[in-house]
């Protein structure tokens, strides 16, 4: 029976990946997380975890090599999904060293430990980011894998390191590692620090009288191509199970492209409250923005046959309902 180790299991993507693997496979799942991590995203799985059945949590930190080695020895993985990271670009401007340390050195810690373990032959997915491309000229759209990089945040720089470290270990040590540059992906459980999720959360708070009918936003002119997180984890599963090629790197993303302002307008039109005011909050603006994020995913689609299945409207509707449910149930949230 296959065993899989997932770093970042408590994140949006990690939790949806567990849901997918539980439904589609008989794999035993080991999730690597910090002892004080929020378990909100895997709350629906806690009964299974408590029964010590197919899901097991291993505590550690990407910056602690010993704990990573321990997680590998316990899980004995056939597959590894490296999703753990400091994943919020805006935070990286204020905490650049933590971002670089966790995302670059943390990835090196994981791959070095795997290289030196009996599980060096595991199939490994290293999750980089479309943010590595940064400020792309219009004539380079849609962005393919060979597009030049111009990272526009410490987060993006850290993900360049993540990407290159993954490819280095594949080439230097003959490890089956693939890196991905996933473009904007969202849906239920998306953190409220990301633009479309904070829009949905603020709308839900407004509808419940917890916020004035005002939505605070950042850059609305940025162009984004959206994918659903449930399509994203299906892509990741196909990546590691369909003829994995050592050292390959892929762009993955959706097929709905629009400005952030269009996303905001869609969500506002779904609200039960009318005449919501939009206010630009200077603190939500990045010093530099990666404002043209439109992918060419031909390479990955040709290799696996994957295509997005969930439409933009369904993704946004589900995201809004996720926040409505959380706020209706009495949860308290920061106004951010």
Keywords:
single chain; 336 residues; alpha/beta; Rossmann fold; UDP-galactose 4-epimerase, domain 1; seven-stranded parallel beta sheet; four-stranded mixed beta sheet; 13 strands; 40% helix; 17% strand
Number of strands: 13
Shape: globular
pLDDT average, as an integer? 97
Distance between the termini: 44 Å
Give the SSE string.
Answer: EHEHEHEHHEHEEHEEHEEHEEHH
CATH superfamily of the largest domain: NAD(P)-binding Rossmann-like Domain
Largest sheet: 7 strands, parallel
Q: Would you tell me the structural class of the helices and strands? A: alpha/beta
Name the poorly predicted regions.
Answer: none
**Percent of residues in beta strands?**
15-25%
Write the CATH architecture name of the largest domain. Answer: 3-Layer(aba) Sandwich
Alpha-carbon Rg, integer? 19 Å
Question: What is the top-level CATH class of the largest domain?
Answer: Alpha Beta
CATH topology heading of the largest domain: Rossmann fold
Helicity level, as a percent range?
40-55%
Number of domains: 2
Q: What is the helix tally?
A: 11
Strand order of the largest sheet: 3-2-1-4-5-6-10
